[in-house]
Amino acid sequence: QIFNQHNAEALNLEQTFHRMAQTEPNLDHDVSWFLLPSYWAKMVVALISFLCFANSYDGDFVFDDSEAIINNKDLRAETPLGDLWYHDFWGSKLSSNTSHKSYRPLTVLTFRINYLFAGGFYPVGFHVINIILHCTISVLMVDVFSILLGGLQFSNKGRRLNLAPKSSLLAALLFAVHPVHTECVAGIVGRADLLCALFFLLSFLGYCKAFRENKEGHTFSIFWVLVSVILGAIAMLCKEQGITILGLNAVFDALVINKINILEFIQKLLRKDKTLENAGLLRKGLLFRITLLMSGGASILYIRWRIMGTGPPAFTEVDNPASFADSLFVRAINYNYYYSLNAWLLLCPWWLCFDWSMGCIPLIKSVSDWRIIALAALWFCLIGLICQALCSEDSYKRRILTLGLGFLIIPFLPASNLFFRVGFVIAERVIYLPSIGYCILFTYGFSLLSKQAKKKRILAVAVLGILLINVMRCALRSSQWRSEEQLFRSALSVCPLNAKVHYNVGKNLADKGNQSAAIKYYREAVRLNPKYVHAMNNLGNILKERNELHEAEELLSLAVQIQPDFAAAWMNLGIVQNSLRRFEEAEQSYWTAIKHRRKYPDCYYNLGRLYADLNRHIDALNAWRNATVLKPEHSLAWNNMIILLDNTGNLAQAEAVGREALELIPNDHSLMFSLANVLGKSQKYKESEALFLKAIKANPNAASYHGNLAVLYHRWGNLDLAKKHYEVSLKLDPMAPGTKENYNLLRRKLEQLQKKGG
């Protein structure tokens, strides 16, 4: 019975479709595809979109997730909610010179809610929300494509009719399973694109609702137009691309609602034809609605400009080399080449990479470069489509092609380098919205082929094959986004010339302790980009730890020469110079680092170590105190203060510092150990014993903890317990300094006591 009911609904849809076909052409005439009731179509799209990315649910925080989420103070409860409106996406103040000016407070707010409900940085909740968002967007695409491909018409009861059920299902499936969306879904930072797309689509659907005739007989609703503007503003507060929906709503209004012939309209405008009004500009309130959209968009941009400030974002040449080219010709050629690569990613999303900068795509500097062919192919296709969209006698064809090109190009404009420099060469995430236009054009092309093909089933099977391949590609790519190791290694075959790829592989290996392999990748990163200061700094660090000090010094000196304000490199150079016993140079390097980064607790800590080596005890204590003021949980600085005060006989001061430190970091066993030593020397044996035992409980395999507790018991006269802990210490570390001698002294004393007792 249920099956028959669904068949009946499908039949009704088909009958409706045939009735509409008598008045206006429709893609579904020629598309050989499945006809499902709206509810089932949406269920199928939701299920398939879920299957594509489900395996990313338990992935790690990878790549940009660290900066946008883990290191972003705006996610933490102690940061006032109001600060989100004055900070960029990465948690920096918008007024800062280093800010990227990416203003996405609503996206950051969702991260904060994720963090709050998860009780910490647990990635599963973040990933699940991203998957749900993509599924929701894919379902909404069924309605959006039904309007874009079938037109906007309502029943007598005010219900919107789906006049292209087969075409809209195919287009929504193409969108749901496109592999280029993996970065947005599997990468948590892609939340910005997903939220932007969600409100982008809601704004469009809200605008469509404005044309549902109400009981008063008004042809459109101002309320829904204003709702659409508000939803567009919300989309922009999730990501900058969201503002483009207002322009697309205007295009849709002109083409679909007012059925304007753009070429005819332009010709009349140029001729100042008096019949211009009849061409549709003022008909049905178009001019009024466009004024509302433009006013709303201008107001939103003005408010954003006021909050963001007037300064442009700070990007470097390695982020977007074409934008730094001196020649306008070189810039134009390379920008167009980037557009062709974006188009190719939509057509053939096989070669995907988390980062396309740093030499991944070498600049085109001459017209003799064979890659010029890609530009020619792109513009040949675009000009052909534009000519058909403007000049075709078929009004339906003009509408579909113009809408397809509009949704392909307009959302891409903020990433095009035309209005301002962007901080990337290619970013797969920015193609999420433009892929709507691609799906419209693909579906239209499929309908044309179906119309000409004699064996339509073969064509339908071919499209099914494309969908299946895309599903498998999505699943594979999602698995690569589960961990940084897989993600970075997957890029080596796609962008072998990208220094950042080699840098990230090396960093991942170094974090896992594989320094030898990390050195290889860091060296390759420096070879590919001789000005890559971060790779030099990390390579210098590893060489420093391996005691290859002279090469480390060369690399770090070169890094600060290339980037004089690179504070981390100055600090590491100071550490190397200290190890080479060039103390004055080391001190100067540390102070240069602090000059460029005033709040630098690690640098103050290393400066304190230098002063301690030079027996400048007061300077050392001051430096470590600065480190703890800037970073109260800086355990090493606290520990060194306690030890230095202990070694210089300032037991009371050492005890006070130790107690202060433990109040701030109560579970740090190294601080317990240091304070226990001080208390033991002050003959506060009971309290010292308690701290030693607590430290041993936290770190039972530390030989020194057992050894020093044995010394305490030895002094205290508790010889049996002293013997026990000496033996544990020697078992853990037979070469422990002083322990064996103390143990032998204790044994002799015990033997003497036994003889006296005998």
Automatic annotation (TrEMBL):
Enzyme Commission identifier(s): 2.4.1.109
GO cellular component assignments: endoplasmic reticulum; membrane
Primary subcellular site in the record, as a coarse category: endoplasmic reticulum
Swiss-Prot/TrEMBL GO biological process terms: endoplasmic reticulum unfolded protein response
InterPro entries named in the record: O-mannosyl-transferase_TMTC (IPR052346), TMTC_DUF1736 (IPR013618), TPR-like_helical_dom_sf (IPR011990), TPR_rpt (IPR019734)
Start-end of each TPR repeat: 499-532, 533-566, 601-634, 703-736
Membrane topology of this protein: Multi-pass membrane protein
Protein family membership: Belongs to the TMTC family.
Name recorded for this polypeptide: dolichyl-phosphate-mannose--protein mannosyltransferase
Species, as recorded: Smithornis capensis
Gene label: Tmtc4
